[in-house]
Design a protein that fits this description.
With about 210 residues, the chain is mainly α. It has helices spanning about 1-5, 10-35, 40-50, 55-65, 70-80, 85-105, 105-140, 145-205.
Length: about 210
Amino acid sequence: MSLIWEGGLLFWIIVAMTGVAVIVFIERLLYLRRVTLDPRDFLPGVFNVLDKGNIKEALENCDEAAGPLPTLVAEAIVYRASDPANLREVLATRAHAELSRLERRSMLLSLLAQLLPLLGLIGTFVGAYAMLSALDVQAPLVQTGAVARALAGALVNTITGLVGAAFCYAAHYILTLKADALSLDMDTCVALMLDHLDSTQCGDKA
């Protein structure tokens, strides 16, 4: 426990930043799990309602479901009368906005992953300076206790910064994988929705 106090203010700053990273990771992970929908499970119900001509109910079903997939489906329903090229552009813009919203907080983990090792390195230099100062003041009769405490403070900051950075890198990687999987689901959702709308319009023309 005494080694923790040897880290000084920088140690607690590193701990606080790592704590923020843990909170962001847990919040984003739970959110991504909550909004992840299989388009092949969600869309048939929407298609069934659309085929009956009940647009309002289809939009209500999208509002009740959380996440970017229902948002894309609702956007496609609203702009269903547009020409295919314009509809694709509208959905692509919405999909990009939804992905940016998903990745916004995750980028904080990437920033912390780069800052934490630097703070640990600063702590190392501060501890090394304290150790040299102790050697200079106490020379020629150096007390090993003071030197050891300064060295311990440097090592504590270094280790804490590296551990925090490792966690941030791992957390950012996990969230990126989940966001990529959700992006693929969004692409699938857009493709299925466009196919259905196109077949419906062709059927109406026939």
